[in-house]
Amino acid sequence: xxxxxxxxxxxxxxxxxxxxxxxxxxxxxxxxxxxxxxxxxxxxxxxxxxxxxxxxxxxxxxxxxxxxxxxxxxxxxxxxxxxxxxxxxxxxxxxxxxxxxxxxxxxxxxxxxxxxxxxxxxxxxxxxxxxxxxxxxxxxxxxxxxxxxxxxxxx
Amino acid sequence: xxxxxxxxxxxxxxxxxxxxxxxxxxxxxxxxxxxxxxxxxxxxxxxxxxxxxxxxxxxxxxxxxxxxxxxxxxxxxxxxxxxxxxxxxxxxxxxxxxxxxxxxxxxxxxxxxxxxxxxxxxxx
Lengths: 155, 124
Hints:
The complex is a heterodimer of chains A (about 160) and B (about 120).
Chain A: E1 2-3, E2 13-20, H1 24-32, H2 34-37, E3 46-47, E4 54-55, E5 62-69, E6 75-86, E7 90-95, E8 102-110, E9 116-124, H3 126-129, H4 132-137, H5 142-153
Antiparallel strand pairs in A: 1-2, 2-9, 3-5, 4-5, 5-6, 6-7, 7-8, 8-9
Chain B: H1 5-13, H2 16-28, H3 33-37, H4 44-56, E1 60-62, E2 71-73, H5 76-123
Antiparallel strand pairs in B: 1-2
């Protein structure tokens, strides 16, 4: 499996890229179909029960999931709203309840050889993007910088 | 402007001068405003303004000596920011892994089903 760069490009933003040996339509279908999503949405040790997934892939439609901790049975509901839906190329949804608001953009690129490149771009804390001083600093790689400063600080 | 701690950290780090100040404090330990202002073509007042933002974000601590108020780095907010990034990276790494497994499985099932159908057609 080709796992490429997942370093954040911009301040407070994260990008994750993965290439799959599967046609684009199939990968896209997996993302918008609860019967598929239930198999991969929850990381190991948790599950995403099928009966608690609601996906309405159109602008304004909901993208709701509940993650259940297998050990404790604790439930973590997640509420998303689709902003942009371009089948089978792009899904953009926001999670207004997460840490001050987070927008997820997922693109599906047909590599022309039966493979599909999936890119997830997350922007957090949208308020910060509205401030002029934040805008000007956006080009810096916060991700690497923070890790770098931490290394220097030796803690 | 957002007021949660992580937003304040990200906003404080958004400025290149403030990042340079933090990098200087990370390598050189404590420094006074004068020392921190040295590499920059800006007034002490401008540097002081940046230090106030960093202090408000909890990224630096300042000594109580009224005249010099030396600055040093407080790595805790950076810890939180690094932790946030690591957590989100882990979520998507796991998710991508599982999606890969799932795609392989359903494509295999589809291929098996096609083979079965072929065989049935041949038998008929």
